Amino acid sequence: MQSITLTVNGKSYTRDVEPRMLLVDFIRNALGLTGTNIACDTSQCGACTIHMDGMAVKSCTVLAVQADGADITTIEGLATNGHLHPMQQAFWDQHGLQCGYCTPGMIMAAAKLVENNPGITEAEIRHGLEGNLCRCTGYQNIVKAVAQAAAAGS
Amino acid sequence: MMRAVGSTLSRVDVVDKVAGVAQYPGDIDLPGQLWMKVVFAGIPHAQINALNVDRARAAPGVVAVLTAADVPVNEYGLIIPDQPVLCGPGSTPTAAHVRWEADQIALVVAATKAQAEAAAQLIEVDYTPLPVITDPLAALAPDAPRIHANLPDNVLYSYRIRRGHMESAFAQADVIVESEYRTHAQEHAYLQPEAGLAFVRDDGRIEVIIAGQWMHEDRQQIAHALGLPEEQIVVRYPAIGGAFGGREDMSLQIVLALAAWKTGRPIKTIWSREESIVGHHKRHPFIFKAKWGATKAGKVVAAQMDVISDAGGYMYTSNKVLGNALVACLGPYDIPNVHVDARTVLTNNCPGGAFRGFGGPQGHFAAEMQMTKLAAALGMDPVELRLQNVLRDGALLPTQSVVPPGCTAAETLEEAARRGGWMQSADGRWQRAAHAPSIQSAAGPQASARQTSLDASRRRIATGVGIAVCYKNVGFSLGFPEHCYAKVELYGEAEIEKAVVSCLGADVGQGAHTAFLQIAADALNLPPERIELQVEHTDITGSSGSASASRLTFMAGHAIQGAAAGALQEWQHEERPARCEFVFHPRPTTMYDPETGVADPSVTYGYCAQYAEVAVDLDTGHVEVTRLVSVNDVGKAINPQLVEGQIEGAAAQAIGWTLLENFIQKDGRTLTPHLSNYLIPGVLDIADVIEPVILEIPDPQGPLGLRGMAEMPMIPTAPAIAAAIHNATGIWIDQLPIVPERMWTALQAQNGA
Known about the structure:
A: alpha+beta, B: Aldehyde Oxidoreductase, domain 4, five-stranded mixed beta sheet, globular
């Protein structure tokens, strides 16, 4: 076991973890933040995407011990003061979800995409979401949602 | 007050889902829960002589190891109970027979997941391997090994249609097209892998928390296997992470309940993606041998089909899927002479079962390819040929019953054709300026067909267009006692302050609960915010049936309207609260006559036509859909935004099935158990030009005129794409999926390699 200290959604946690524990399992099981989903186990789907030190990462590709000292935001921490993040609002407005299982990862990936490229084009949105799978929507409304959030932020 | 029906009311679950607080089964924990590992056979065909679980039982943390001997009634199945809950000795005579690699043989229950998984490794199984059958044609051979002892020919089910006189009809035909088509298995790949919990409640009943499609059917199957009355079981659906037919059959429902019952402890499990892909059924692979004839004038006079589907090791819904394919393989056409023989055959492959379209995509691939080929052989426009033969109101189905009124195959096809550039000339005939199969080549005409460089400047792309149309039954067919419960309770004094609406149709992501709310608001003339939905578990009301067969909004719409009307009547009679529980029964249907196929098979149908444009890379065989117009007659769009979402999602699944998704099994074992080797479409694989088109021509039987619609847009895509590929390259691809290797091989053959 190894002790790690990290900040998740603005709150500091210190926990002992198995060196092999994945960050996604830490977030879900140790912290009980189940909005971050697991869907593929092989890093294809992006359902577990979170923000770590300012980057969108698939939390199944990171060990919990690698996150020692990190500042992490999960889907539960994206809204501020009870107000949805513009990307969450855009997924709502544009019906960018159906079953909703890919949605947290999709929103987290998209939020960082737009933050890093405020004038993002539709082609860049599509390219940027290549690592996030959705089986329900056919992606059309997801792309529209990201474009709406980008427009709202500019 | 704005009318709720027809508006894009927000999904009832949208805030929870964007905020990450929606709870799927795997997100739920119960105090004192144990973890259950389900052990698969791992061998596709074998007899289990002995199963030694002593070492597993003695392993650290293990609370119980359950085997066949622990299952009170060791059989289950949605249609017939032909599958053991757990395979192994000590139970029924047939339960020791493994017929599928993912047959479940033991349940290891331990304090932690790691302990359960470690203990599972200690189970010792003494197998006698049996010959593995993976080809349904080989399974039909007289000397083939039997998958089930009571089915000596491995034919699980068969249907036939006999209408008219084939010999004279073919003699009449000016052109005859004969082909063999093969369609492949498809994995549902819902993003949420199977997961669930079960526990014994304070009232002594067993509650199962799971993602399914039909909670009362789950309850029935759990109760049957446990030998308990249904009232002893409660099934609860939290948020469901997609289904598409893949949750219609049992996966974890029974075994979770069994483990909770046997241990008295809460039980939880979550399947890995690998366990999900290996462990649940797939879309049936089909083989169609087709012979169709038409006259020069454009009348299709005869259609002969031999149909075989691969059922895998158990029934699942194979007979029902076959029943759909029996008519789907003839397309939405009025063909006077028809001869179909259809069989679903046992093998040791992954079982075939429900998947969006339910035999429709497979059947229509064959039918619509035949129509496109007939048009080509006749030198006729493919839209004109279709419109000359399409089912219209008053026409007879191949089963010799009149098509239910409101048949709009022609209207959907005409709209798709218009959007694809067809025009109706003064004489009424439809035509499109011939698409010159253009080959765009940046490197000029000397570019070599054998060039292997992927240098974009030297790519040679051929473009083409194609069109197809379909119909699909709404509701369970062939004499099934279709029904749907709903309950409405009205609270208040002078005016209705609150309505509680109960209907237990599963919201698998399609937005059913939101549609329920809108229909209820409309029926009660109340704003949606004054309505509370109760939709979570089996105690609330009677069965609302399955979220499948494009039936739910249709059946639940009627049921909610009926309950609302009854409750309003009670309200007028000063009842407070006013209550009504209502059960809707659609018109009855009938089973196929075993000799002729004569039947009134389905309550009603939905219609969809699609126009596709493709770009074929002549050097790599990569096919890209560059435009897909999907025209759907939905009768009435209760929520247009949700309807469009269904159309777009179906388009993506259909493009995936046609061009990308390639479920591979070898010797009865799954070779593509991950999303890294079973590829589903990503955002770059899906045309950014999916055009969802909604028509609203009322179905006379539908509540508010609506038609079921969620499966239809999955159906015409493959034949529309294949027609476009032919238009682009002159090549008929009769086998799916049209992965680059298959396309490239065909291009090589064409080049006279």
